[in-house]
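FIELD: query
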Amino acid sequence: MSWQQYIDGNLVGTGQVQHAAIIGLDGNIWATSAGFTIDQPEGAALASHFKDGAAKAMASGIHVNKVKYMFIKKDELLSGEDYRLLIGKKGPTGVSIYKSDTAMVIGVYGEGVQPGACNNVVTTLGAYLVSVGY
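FIELD: result
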């Protein structure tokens, strides 16, 4: 399955994610949904949130597709300070970012979607990628 198929079928295709991307931890773009633009510096900045305990995200927000989301929480899924899920919100919209071992799965939800539904879709794909070595 191509990275684009994961975007179209497993993320946007669920109806719980309006825009999505899969990007490497170096910030390089693997696939994005139509009309969703994340450049390499923005991707690298997102990856840095997983390295600094989300300190920058807490202080200045989470920037995705040139939109600033207020930091809501990080999910402690790994040992120590390491975690896999970062959540942000802006009005009735928000973002979920799941870090696998080599990439980040990013899902943005729109108005009318429950945040938990988007988080679940993003986390499910991210956990699958971890299970197959990504």
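FIELD: remark
The beta strands are 19-24, 29-32, 62-64, 67-75, 85-90, 93-99, 103-109.
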